[in-house]
From TrEMBL:
Organism taxonomic ancestry: Archaea, Methanobacteriati, Methanobacteriota, Stenosarchaea group, Halobacteria
Name the record gives this protein: Uncharacterized protein
Domain DUF8054: 20-100, 116-244, 247-286
Signal peptide: none
Native source organism of the sequence: Halorubrum ruber
InterPro entries: DUF8054_C, DUF8054_M, DUF8054_N
Classification via Pfam families: DUF8054_C, DUF8054_M, DUF8054_N
Amino acid sequence: MNASRDTAAGRLREPARVAVDRLRQPEYTGENRCLPCTIVNVGIAAVGATAVAAVGAPLLGTAGFGAALAAIWLRGYLVPGTPELTKRYLPERVLALFGKTPGSRGITARPSGEVDPETYLLDADILVETPAGDDFAFAPEFASAWRAAATGEPRDTGVDGDRSDRDDVAALATLTGIDADELAIDWYEGVGFAYAGDEKIGHWESRAAFRADVAADRVLTATRGDWTTLALADRSAVLGALRLFVDECPSCAGEVGLEERVVESCCSSYDVVAGRCAGCDARLFELRLPESVAAAAE
């Protein structure tokens, strides 16, 4: 008898599960949920429920608020077109609070502003003008030392390769000066996220980008007496600027070329120029183009 009841109950629940699955939008929920969109929609739902309650229907307002929260949980938003609305109307300073605007990659702490990366690199003769005089490149001595530091580690067979997590953490400890026992670096679809305890401290576009920073840090530590006296965030800013001039992938030795593309997210759309390895397809950097430059290129 109990088995029959369980079977009947399961049959009754099945249509409900199907209905829920039809309503669910995985592109806007779960790991893909957008915090700004969710907050905006919960706020709209709360205002609407409060207005309904204020006109003498508190139970209806409560029920409506509950239904709105269920819709947001299932679909990611309540108001149709929310992703486009937030993309168009939310100021970048608001999106920045949720990490929705492009920023520097590497260690994510804010630089002090006392060190200008380009000036530092030029004054240290790390960057020099190209023969044509229209760009900069690694100075020959630095390029040789950087390549030796980068190739001193095992090469990858692909973007992820066979580098162990222990090696990554050891390199991160050297880069940051933080004890390795407190650090972790997780790779998700080729992108690296670094943590000290529960705090996110860094973000790299690829293992190649991470290796480029590690190699440059080793060379600068060995050759520049002032390097280790700089704040970690300032060193990260310098390393990020230096990575713009990497022409050989530190993971597979492939040629790094430039490409322009449009980056789309639920909350923003912007043009970037990216450095990508022709050999393993790893991104070394991604730099947002000013609106004036992007418009002129259209």
